[in-house]
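# nightly structure sweep
# worker-07 picked up a monomer target from the shared queue
# config: single-sequence mode, recycle default, output format = C-alpha cells
# input follows
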Amino acid sequence: MSLDRPALPLSTGARGVQDARRWVVEACTDIGRPDLAECAQLGTSELVTNALLHADAPITVRLRGTREHPRIEVRDGSSDPPRLPVPLPAGSDPDDLLLTFGRGLTIVARASTAWGADLDEEGKVVWFTPARDVATGEGVEGVITGWRPQRRPHRHAADPDAVRVEIRGIPLAAYAGFQRHFRELRREVRLLALAHEAEYPLAKNLSDLFGTLERQLRDIAGLERVEAALQAGRETTDVEVSVPRGDARTLNRFLELLDLADEFCREERLLSLARSPEQRRFQAWFFGEFVRQAAGEAPVAWHVPADGRSRSVVS
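# output follows
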C-alpha cells in the first residue's frame, strides 16, 4: 500500500463527513498507526464539517507527515483563516464532547498533538497530527501560517546590474508541476518544523531557505508571463526575464536544496514522494538557465524530440 495516498475529494452534506471518517481510519491502519484512528476520526469530522459549513469547494482530505507523526489535512477553496477556539463556558464540563460540537476547532485542539491552518492563493489547508487519546481542558494551541495578499512591484526591472535571461521552450505542464510540488514540499517542511522541530531539525532549516529563494523567484521581472501562458492553455512559451546578477548566480542553490529535500523525504520517510527523474531534469534545465546566462553563456532551449524524451539544446 502506497504511503503517498491521493487526496480524497469530498461531497457536500453528511456523506462527505462519513466518507472522510472512514478514509482516515483506513489511512491510519495502512501506515501501521491504528492507535491514532479514534482521534483522527474526531478531528477530521470537525474539520470537514467546518469546511462544508463555512468554506468553498473543492474540499479534500489527505494524509501527510511521517509514520511517526502522521498529519491529516483538510483543504478547501477559501483563503479566510478558521476561527480559533474560544474558552468553554464557565461551569461547563470540559470532558463533555457534546459541548465542543460546532464550537470552532476546540475538538481538534483536544484530539491532536499539534494543529493549525496554512493559507495560500487557492484556499487553505487546516491540519492536525492526531493524538493517541483525547486531551482534557482546552487542548493544544493552533497556529495560522502562509500566504497573505500583497502587492509586489518588479523592483529589479531597471536595475543596471540586472541580467536579461531568455528561457526558451518552457514546457508549461512541467512548470506547473514544479510549482505544485514546491508548494507542497515547502508546506511539508514548514509544518513539520512547527509541530515537531526537535524530531526534524533539518525541516526548519529547509523551510527558512525555501522561503528566501521563493521570494527571489517572485521578484523576477517578467516571470509572470509564464503564468499568463499557463492560464491561456498553451503548451510551451518563451520569456525574457530580468534578475539581479547575484540572484541569478545563487539560484543554483535552489537545485541543491531540492536535492537535499529529496534525501530528507527518503530518510525521514515522509508520506509524500521525492521528485521524479523527469522533474529533476526540468528543474536542472530551468534554474540552470539563470546560472549559465549570468555567466555569459548562450540560451539553451528545452526540446522534446520524436522519441518523447525531453532534452535541451543550444539555440
